[in-house]
Amino acid sequence: MAASLMNRAVSRTETIGAFRLSLNLLRNFSSPAAASPATENPSSDPIKAKRRKKKNKNLIEVAQFLPNWGIGYHMAKAHWNGVSYEITKINLYKDGRHGKAWGIVHKDGLRAAEAPKKISGVHKRCWKYIPNLSKTTPASATAAQVQAD
């Protein structure tokens, strides 16, 4: 009886060992990094790695990473050329990813209007931050700096 139990135990370990070995073989053959040593040196590989597509964001998602929710910063839709909005006010909905925004239109870096207007298309996923146009300072702050000098 002990011999039969011993034979069963040995056959189970052999089966498990063979199963593990087959899984390791499958893993080695399906892995592209292990299959070709050329991928270890990216300069010799003629095919470049795929780049992730940049995630498009709506205006609120772009503004949330800027100081003070982007108020005073310039943003534009990706397909606009020479037109941007200087954000003056943002009203957020409860979820924090949607809302309304107001801003002053700028064309070619110069103000096109004095009064802020409601920005349309805030929820469309095509907004970008314009870093070239620096944050504008209010007229009172610049006047105080000039008088201090």
Automatic annotation (TrEMBL):
Annotated stretches, region: Disordered: 33-55
Instruction: Kindly list any coiled-coil regions of this protein.
Output: none
What molecular function does GO assign, one term?
A: structural constituent of ribosome
Question: What GO terms fall under cellular component here?
Answer: mitochondrion
Highest taxon of source = Eukaryota
Q: Which InterPro entries match?
A: Ribosomal_mS34
Pfam families (UniProt xref): MRP-S34
Matching entries from PANTHER family are given as: 28S RIBOSOMAL S34 PROTEIN
The name this protein goes by in its record = Mitochondrial 28S ribosomal protein S34
Source species: Brassica oleracea var. oleracea
